[in-house]
């Protein structure tokens, strides 16, 4: 395995470990063990745990952008928004690593100027990408991103939700009688495949 391939493997392992335990709660030993290398070798790839966290955070944002690009390929307008929203819902309903790591990044950024700077640049790029792919107005892009963040919260708290125009009504009903989705059935699973809450009313 080349050094570049090992570096990529290490970033992926770090994302999983940081997503679960955060920066302070994650040891480089745990990351090295997941990769199958020694700690000294890990520090040959990344000079510090902080450098690895920043690289993993950058990859997290890049993964989201790539997912949006792949979903919207060949589509435009509302169709592109629906496809991108559907892809994000699939991510939330599948591997929880991306959501968990997003939340860890946001929490850590409050006290970390360098991480805030990285997040600022990456969020700006993601915003531009969504607008360019869809051709939608800034208001629609803002709405799409805002709904996506809402879905993060709903998924984190395992609050059931459905797609599109039913979402506001479902949340009103839920707020009056709070409950969680059945065990083993993540909230994001309530949005039908291929159509998503994000980007729809």
Written account of the structure:
There is one protein chain. With 201 residues, the protein is mostly helical. The protein has a single domain (3-190), classed as Tetracycline Repressor, domain 2 (Orthogonal Bundle). Helices cover 72% and strands 0% of the residues. The protein has helices at 3-25, 28-35, 39-45, 49-72, 77-93, 97-109, 113-134, 138-156, 166-176. Helix 1 crosses helix 6. The chain is globular and about 55 Å long. Mean pLDDT is 88; it is low at 190-197.
Distinctive features:
mainly alpha; Tetracycline Repressor, domain 2; 72% helix; 201 residues
Topology:
Layout: H1 3-25, H2 28-35, H3 39-45, H4 49-72, H5 77-93, H6 97-109, H7 113-134, H8 138-156, H9 166-176
Mean pLDDT figure: 88
Q: What structural category characterises the helix and strand content?
A: mainly alpha
Q: Say how many strands there are.
A: 0
Strand content: under 5%
Our Rg estimate from Cα atoms comes to 18 Å
CATH architecture group name:
Orthogonal Bundle
CATH superfamily: Tetracycline Repressor, domain 2
Low-confidence stretches: 190-197
Range of helix content: over 70%
CATH class: Mainly Alpha
Biggest β-sheet: count, sense, barrel? none
Question: Helical region count?
Answer: 9
| Shape field | globular
Number of structural units classed as domains: 1
Order of helices and strands: HHHHHHHHH
Distance between the termini: 47 Å
CATH topology: Tetracycline Repressor, domain 2
Summarize the structure.
Residues 27-46 bind DNA. Helices cover 72% and strands 0% of the residues.
């Amino acid at each position: 395995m080349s050094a570049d391939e090992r570096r990529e493997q290490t970033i992926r392992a770090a994302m999983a470990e940081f997503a679960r335990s955060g920066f302070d709660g994650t040891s480089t030993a745990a990351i090295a063990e997941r990769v199958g290398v020694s700690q000294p070798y890990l520090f040959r790839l990344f000079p510090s745990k902080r450098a690895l966290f920043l690289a993993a955070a950058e990859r997290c944002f890049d993964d989201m952008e790539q997912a949006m690009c792949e979903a919207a390929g060949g589509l435009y307008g509302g169709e592109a928004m629906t496809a991108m929203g559907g892809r994000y819902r699939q991510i939330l309903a599948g591997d929880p690593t991306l959501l968990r790591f997003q939340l860890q990044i946001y929490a850590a950024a409050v006290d970390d100027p360098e991480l805030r700077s990285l997040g600022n640049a990456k969020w700006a790029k993601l915003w531009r990408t969504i607008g360019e792919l869809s051709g939608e107005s800034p208001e629609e892009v803002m709405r799409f991103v805002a709904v996506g963040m809402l879905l993060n919260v709903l998924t984190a708290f395992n609050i059931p939700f459905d797609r599109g125009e039913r979402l506001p009504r479902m949340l009103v009903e839920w707020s009056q009688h709070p409950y969680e989705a059945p065990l083993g059935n993540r909230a994001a699973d309530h949005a039908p495949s291929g159509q998503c809450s994000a980007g729809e009313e």
